[in-house]
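Sample intake — Endonuclease III
Collected from: Saccharibacillus brassicae
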Amino acid sequence: MTNAKVRHILDTIAGMYPDARCELDHRNAFELTIAVLLSAQCTDVTVNKVTKDLFEKYRAPADYVSVPREELEQDIRRIGLYRNKAKHIQSLCHLLIEQYGGEVPSAHDELVKLPGVGRKTANVVVSNAFDMPAIAVDTHVERVSKRLGLAAEGDSVLEVEKKLMKKVPREEWTLTHHRLIFFGRYHCKAQSPNCQVCPLLDVCKEGKKRMKTSTVRRTRKSG
């Protein structure tokens, strides 16, 4: 893909979602880390409903480790995989207290050592809590990147991240991450993308294929 096409994509999604941002409610790096951990296989809307009360009850790592795990499980029961997540949260908090003075580390290499924190979560935390450029590849970013040709269909999540980091200017990494998420969440959806009104149809193989199929079906029906 040429630099001009990449620029076209970036400018288009910037025009569509100029105010794209992290939609997980949080007040600090610690709350963001917990929220992102909870968001795995769960919508941001559901996470925000749960953390509204959770973050009032638990303000610091010590609060999470001071209660029985069963109590924490009940507090996050509406979240998918809540038992595993409760276990990760308490293990994470123990580690923060024992090795980091109760504070979330700002270094990516340190963040991925925390229980339940993978590369994607670490990227979200460093970019949103510590203002370090990063691109976190979630299901929306992966899907949209492949549909628009920014990555290949068979690329792994890490390969998608590396290609985006190479093609997108570093100072635009974080904003692009948010805009790709908004584009995938609200426009280029997994099952019913808005191809018919998409301003990026010209660079989207998936969209062209869908529109062609749709045209053929309409032609058959009319015939």
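Post-analysis note: The chain is about 60% helix and 0% strand.
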